[in-house]
Amino acid sequence: AGLPSGVYLVRLQAGGVVQVQKLVLLK
């Protein structure tokens, strides 16, 4: 339950590129 927090922080900083990677990781 620690990865999600990091991903969210990175998503806010990156913008949308990380969002796509996050979705792929979840899939």
Q: What are the key terms here?
A:
27 residues, mainly alpha
Rg from Cα: 8 Å
Number of strands: 0
End-to-end Cα distance, whole Å, is 17 Å
Strand-residue proportion:
under 5%
Assign a percent range to the helix content.
Answer: over 70%
Order of helices and strands: HH
Per the principal axes of the C-alpha atoms, what is the gross shape?
flat
The main β sheet shows up as: none
- State the helix count: 2
Can you give the mean pLDDT?
Answer: 60
For the record, the count of structural domains works out to 1
- Overall SS class: mainly alpha
Low-confidence stretches: none
Describe it.
This protein is mainly α. The chain has one domain. It is 81% helix and 0% strand. The chain has two helices and no strands. α1 (3-14) runs antiparallel to α2 (17-26). The longest helix has 12 residues, at 3-14. It is flat and about 20 Å long. The termini are far apart.
